[in-house]
Write a structure and sequence with these properties.
Layout lengths: L1 H12 L4 H13 L12 H8 L3 H13 L3 E4 L3 E4 L10 H7 L8 H23 L2 H16 L4 H18 L3 H9 L1 H14 L4 H15 L3 H25 L5
Antiparallel strand pairs: 1-2
Protein name: FadR family transcriptional regulator
Keywords: DNA-binding, Transcription, Transcription regulation
Pfam family, one: FCD
Length: about 250
Amino acid sequence: METIERQDAAEKRRPRVGRNVTAAIAQDICADRYPSGTPLPRENDLCELYGVSRTVIRESLKVLESKGLVRGKPRVGTTVCDRDDWNILDADVLEWIGPYIKDFDLLGCILEARRTIEPAAAEYAAERASAQEIADLDKAWRQMRDSARDPESFTEADVMFHTVLLTASHNQVFRRLSSAIHAALKYALHASNIAVENREDAVIVHGQLVEALRMRDKAGARECANRMLDLAVRDLAAAEKAIGRTK
């Protein structure tokens, strides 16, 4: 009877899928339960802590290693990597570090990257964008306009707008960057969009950028992109305040 009760208790605490275990270990790493440079507990101990088999633990550690959070070595074990080695542009990693985002200054870093890339992309797009790409930007803008009171839908349209903009630059590096920063951009835009109540200013300037592209106005497109980023600075301040960060 006692054996059955122990098995039942283990089943209750066992996550239903391995992904949950991966997230649980990752979140413990992000919370400094396992600080950078320190070894993780042994496999058997991890099995006991997270209530799963060695197979599940091993698969979870493989995922975490692929994302730069840990590194395993034969006869040494698994060590937590320095935060500089983490793939912070990965969607899963962004989700795991979410509650600790203030420790990474990630929102500010994303904004700095956008400051460097987007004005140039907008200028190139004014010269190079196809009619279909401009139509796609217009569609994304209209979705932003129509969902201005719904931050989730607004963010989806906002992300699509900026993704198409980088693609419309017809710069192969910018296109690659669009894929690389997609998850981080979505995270940053979502943080900003839920932190502000009025998104009308953003809707207006995004619409003006679409019009500048239609008119093949390179200087106007760059100006609109810079004004979008000025708004992003304002919204970033609101997002940082919302997550309890002080400058």
